[in-house]
Write a structure and sequence with these properties.
It is an enzyme of class 3 (hydrolase). It catalyses: a sn-glycero-3-phosphodiester + H2O = an alcohol + sn-glycerol 3-phosphate + H(+). Pfam families: GDPD (PF03009). This protein is of the alpha/beta class. It is built from 16 helices and 19 strands. Strand 1 and strand 2 form a beta hairpin. Helix 3 runs parallel beside helix 5 and helix 7 packs parallel to helix 8. The chain starts with 14 loop residues before the first helix and ends with a helix.
C-alpha cells in the first residue's frame, strides 16, 4: 500500500483522561469531533514513542475497527509474526498480510514479490545468480523475486526493516525473524483469539494479474498462480472462513470479481471483499491496462462495470473514474462490501514550504499541510452502504501534516477525525495509536449515544 508510532502522553490513562489530555493539548471540538488541527502536538507524541503498549481491548461492538497495517510495523519489521503478535496485543482487530507466492505455490507475507529490501537475500551468496530484472505491473524492477524461490529456500532468509532511515529502531531486529506463510499467520490469529475477542485477518493479493497471467520465473516458465484461489484454499484448509473475521482486498478489479463470481462459490465460502484505490488522479488499475493491451473482451471480464464508468473502460482509465456514485453503487450490488481509498485522497494535502519541525528535534520534516477538505468519495461510498477503510496512518513526523491552525496534527488526532467523518476503520502502522483514538472517539460520543 501507499505511503503513523507515538502514543498520546496519556496513553495509559482511561478513555476519559485521554480525552482530557487531548483537549488540554489544544484540541477544538465541533459537534463531538476533534478537529484535525487539534490533538497532541507532534512533539508531545514523540515523547511517548519509546515503548509500545499492551492494550487489553474489548470487542468492537460499534463496528469501528483498527487494522494493523502489515502488523505493528511501526515497532517491528513488517510482515513478521512478531509484528502481527505485537499488533494483536496492542488491541488491533485485524492484522493485514500482503500475499505473494513462492515457486512451489505457497503464499507468504511480503510487501512485494521483489524481496531485496525486506529480507537479507543479498547476503546469501548461494542466491546471487537469481538476481534479475523483471517487468512487474508495467515497471522494470531489479532484485530477487519470490516466484524464483521454493518455500524451503525462503525459510533460509530473515526479515529486514524496509525503511530504516525512517524507522531506525526497527533495524535492530534485522536478521531475527523468519518470513511467515499465510497459514502461519492464520494459526497465530486463531491462537490469539480468546473469550469474546476474535482476531481477524485482512489479506491483500499483490500483483494478481502478474502472478496469474503475465509473470515468468527466472527460467522463463510462466508463473500461472491464482493468488485468489490459493488464498481461499488456505483459508478453507485452516478452517478460517468466518466472514466476520476476514476481509479480502485488492487494487485490481478482475481479481475481486473472480473471487466473488467463481472462486468463493466453488469453495462454499462467502467473504467480504474490499476494493482498494490507488491515487485517484494518476494511477490506473493494472488489470485494466493489461486486459485492454491483450485485447480481452472487457464485458466478459468486468460485466456491466464499464457502462457505469464515464467514457467506458480504457487502458488509461484512472482510479478516480471508479470513485463515482454510479460505480460505487454497482460495486456494492455486485461484489464489494467496502472500499479502501488512499488517505491522501480522502483528506487532501498541499505542499508546505518551508517545512516545519513538528516534534522539536531540530529537523523540519513536515512537508505538507491539510487543506481542510474531504473528498466526496467518502460520503458517496457511505451513502451506497459500503464500508470505508482508508490507508495508511503513520505516526512518524514525515507522514504528518500541518493543520489549519498551524499545529502539526498527530496520527492520533487524524485517526479520531477519520472516525468522526464516518469511516468504519483504518490501516495504521501503530495499532496502539488507533486503539487510543477509538477510545477517545467513543468517549466523546458517549453523551450523544446515551442521550438518544
Amino acid at each position: 500500500m501507499n505511503p503513523d508510532t507515538p502514543v498520546a502522553p496519556c496513553r495509559r490513562a482511561t478513555a476519559r483522561r485521554r480525552l482530557a489530555c487531548l483537549l488540554l493539548a489544544g484540541c477544538s471540538v465541533t459537534h463531538g469531533l476533534p478537529a484535525l488541527a487539534a490533538g497532541p502536538s507532534a512533539a508531545d507524541g514523540a515523547k511517548a514513542h519509546a515503548a509500545p503498549s499492551h492494550h487489553r481491548p474489548r470487542a468492537p461492538r460499534d463496528g469501528l475497527i483498527v487494522i494493523a497495517h502489515r502488523g505493528a510495523s511501526g515497532y517491528r519489521p513488517e510482515h513478521t509474526l512478531e509484528a502481527y503478535r505485537l499488533a494483536i496485543r496492542q488491541g488491533a482487530d485485524f492484522i493485514e498480510p500482503d500475499l505473494v507466492a513462492t515457486r512451489d505455490g505457497v503464499l507468504i507475507a511480503r510487501h512485494e514479490n521483489e524481496i531485496s529490501g525486506t529480507t537479507d537475500v543479498a547476503r546469501h551468496p548461494e542466491f546471487a545468480d537469481r538476481r534479475t530484472t523483471k517487468r512487474v505491473d508495467g515497471q522494470l524492477v531489479t532484485g530477487w523475486f519470490t516466484e524464483d524461490f521454493t518455500l524451503a529456500e525462503i525459510r533460509r532468509l530473515r526479515a529486514r526493516e524496509r525503511i530504516p532511515g525512517i524507522r531506525p529502531d526497527n533495524a535492530r531486529f534485522d536478521g531475527l525473524y523468519t518470513i511467515p506463510t499465510f497459514a502461519e499467520i492464520l494459526r497465530l490469529a486463531a491462537r490469539e483469539s480468546r473469550g469474546h475477542r476474535r482476531i481477524g485477518v485482512y489479506p491483500e493479493t499483490k500483483h494478481p494479474t502478474y502472478f496469474a497471467r503475465e509473470g515468468r520465473r527466472l527460467d522463463g516458465s510462466p508463473i500461472g498462480i491464482s493468488l485468489g484461489q490459493a488464498l481461499v484454499e488456505t483459508l478453507v484448509e485452516e478452517g478460517f472462513t468466518d466472514p466476520r473475521r476476514v476481509f479480502i482486498q485488492s487494487f485490481e478489479f478482475e481479481n475481486l470479481i473472480e473471487l466473488h463470481e467463481a472462486i468463493m462459490p466453488a469453495a462454499g465460502v462467502d467473504l467480504p471483499l474490499v476494493q482498494l484505490y490507488d491515487d485517484l488522479d494518476t494511477a490506473v488499475p493494472y488489470d485494466l491496462a493489461y486486459n485492454v493491451a491483450q485485447g480481452r473482451d472487457l464485458a466478459t471480464v468486468y460485466g456491466e462495470l464499464g457502462s457505469k464508468v464515464e467514457g467506458g473502460l480504457q487502458a488509461g482509465t484512472p482510479y478516480g473514474a471508479f470513485a463515482t456514485p454510479a460505480v460505487l453503487g454497482w460495486m456494492k450490488a455486485n461484489y464489494a462490501s467496502g472500499v479502501g481509498p488512499w488517505k491522501g485522497n480522502l483528506l487532501p494535502r498541499a505542499p508546505l514550504a518551508p517545512p516545519v519541525d513538528g516534534d522539536g528535534d531540530g529537523e523540519a520534516e513536515v512537508v505538507s499541510r491539510s487543506t481542510a477538505r474531504v473528498h466526496p468519495m467518502l460520503g458517496d461510498a457511505l451513502a451506497q452502504g459500503l464500508l470505508v477503510h482508508p490507508y495508511t496512518l503513520r505516526a512518524e513526523e514525515g507522514y504528518l501534516a500541518q493543520a489549519p491552525n498551524g499545529n502539526v496534527a498527530t496520527a492520533l488526532a487524524e485517526a479520531v477525525q477519520l472516525y468522526g467523518l464516518g469511516v468504519n476503520g483504518f490501516f495504521i502502522d501503530q495499532p496502539d495509536v488507533g486503539v487510543a483514538a477509538r477510545d477517545i472517539f467513543r468517549e466523546i460520543n458517549r453523551p450523544l449515544i446515551e442521550g438518544r
